[in-house]
Amino acid sequence: MNIGVIAIQGNIEEHIHALSHAMKKEGINGRIIPIKHRGIVPRCDGIVIPGGESTTLCRLMKREGIDIEIKDAAQKKKPILATCAGLIAIAKKGGREAEETNQELLGIIDLEVERNAFGRQRESFETEVAISFLEEPYNAVFIRAPRITRVGKDVEIIATLNNSEVIAVKEKNIIALSFHPELTDDTRIHQYYIKLINQQP
Asked: Domains of the chain: which residue ranges?
């Protein structure tokens, strides 16, 4: 199993660390590959798009030609895990701020998002949330987190905050989260993602 982590900008090492521990827990041998240039995504069984600064992330992915490869991977049903800024990057619409900055999104999941909806860096917080595929609550870390403001008809809501704010969704092979699962010691989300990859034909 080869899992690629987009390593242009954001919480790269944290995802690599979490994926490594998740692989060990699942008893799977594999490689985690940092991706900075085109040509690597097609060789990966799954792709992780980390948090960071979404405008910079999208611009650099386009410059390197990685954006086209991720779109192709999504069409081929390769599992994709996108967190925080990664969620913004894969959405169809990025809200008012994205329009004002002419941010080009990948548009591989039918969502509309609002950037920094839960506050700036100093307003970061942690809270327990229920996630549909986990038996026990998950301690979610929110840092400059986006809000999902519209969900397409084929997109499954897998977690909400206060029973109202949509913070996690799944559409076939894609999982998108407002929060940062890589910033906790709880690897259950990464383990679930690895299982999705393992189920691919």
From this structure: 2-198
Which is catalytic among the residues 58, 171, 180, 190?
180
- Under DSSP, is residue 92 helix (H, G, I), strand (E, B) or coil? strand
The dotted CATH code for 2-198 is 3.40.50.880
Q: Is position 17 annotated as part of the catalytic site?
A: no
Reply yes or no on whether 182 is catalytic: yes
Q: Looking at 44, 84, 171, 190, which residue is catalytic?
A: 84
Q: Is 64 considered catalytic here? A: no
Query: Rounded to the nearest 5°, which phi and psi values hold at 15?
Result: -70, -40
This prediction has a pTM of 0.92
- The tens place of each residue's pLDDT in the chain, 201 residues long, gives 999 999 987 779 999 999 999 999 999 999 999 999 999 999 999 999 998 788 888 889 999 999 999 999 999 999 999 999 899 999 988 656 555 556 679 999 999 988 765 655 555 789 999 999 999 999 999 888 888 999 999 999 999 988 888 999 999 999 999 999 999 999 999 999 999 999 887
**Which of 44, 69, 182, 190 is the catalytic position?**
182
